[in-house]
Structures are given as C-alpha cells and as structure tokens.
Specification:
About 45% of the residues lie in helices and about 5% in strands. It has a two-stranded antiparallel sheet with strand order 1-2. It contains two helices and two strands. The chain has about 90 residues and is mainly alpha-helical. The protein has two domains: about 1-40, no CATH class; about 50-89, no CATH class. It is elongated.
C-alpha cells in the first residue's frame, strides 16, 4: 500500500522535472536565437526542402553526401584536403 501512495508523488515530481527541462530548453533556444538570429537552431525533422539549381559532380556518392544532388549553383564551394588526395581530378 505504501508504494501505491508514492507513485502519484513520483509522477508529480517527474512531471515537474519534465516541465522544468522543457522551460530550460525553451529559454536556451530563445537566447541562442536572440544572439545569433532566427534559424540558427534547427531541430531534426523541421528541415524544409529547398529547391535549388545544382551542378552535378559526376560522383553519385558525393552528390548524395552534399545533400542537394551536387554543388549549389551561385555559391562558393571550397574543396579541401591533403596533397595528392585527388582534389583536382
């Protein structure tokens, strides 16, 4: 019987902790957006698909890894790597 009495209290404590965590997260996100601007924090699954023109690299694996199907047209792209790694070929 004693454990039955503790369960609702434990649930209330857990709800309060969850509520406190949610408030803390919201406060942190709001502060980051104030400091760095809206859109600086993106949640997984909230990504909006953006249609853009791309230049295919000729490598299907690289195009997939870039996420848009190639190099975005009208943007600066830096290809970086050690010497003799095949950057120019």
């Amino acid at each position: 019987m004693a454990s039955a009495n503790r369960e609702p209290q434990d649930d209330k404590k857990e709800d309060k902790r969850s509520s406190d965590r949610a408030k803390s997260l919201d406060t942190a996100l709001a502060q980051i957006e104030r400091q760095f601007g809206k859109g600086s924090v993106m949640k997984m699954g909230d990504r909006k698909a953006v249609a853009m023109e791309v230049i295919p690299t000729g490598s299907v694996a690289l195009d997939i890894a870039l996420g848009v199907g190639g190099l975005p047209r009208g943007r600066v792209v830096e290809i970086y790597g050690p010497e003799s790694s095949g950057k120019t070929t």
